[in-house]
Amino acid sequence: MKKCGFICIVVLIIACSSSKKISSQKSFSSEEINLITAADTLTPMRVFKITNPKDSILLRTKSHYTKPDSTDIILQTFVKRLYKTVTDSMSLGVGIAAPQVGILKNIIWVQRFDKEDFPFEVYLN
Fold this sequence. Notes:
Layout: H1 2-26, H2 30-36, H3 53-59, H4 73-86, E1 95-97, E2 107-111, E3 120-124
Antiparallel strand pairs: 1-2, 2-3
């Protein structure tokens, strides 16, 4: 009986600590929120360059997991602005990652040449 109680306590502690870790990784920092909400969804974001020393430091920083959440307004706004950036005439490309605009999240837009009409698709990880 004591073993069963001990196992239950251990499982409870592990479950509580892992859920805390996941929830803290899904949110945007206040600095990231300021970057995202600095303009509307029709405005592209500034693309960071590896040749700029300050940009280079951020571009080499590890990005974080992003939990897909259709109710997260900041995430929706960011995905729209990132799409506007990759399709903007000043920075045309076949893909863009969130760190390229100063947001350290695992989010990318990629143009799919293996599909009809070559659509852009977003991936969150």
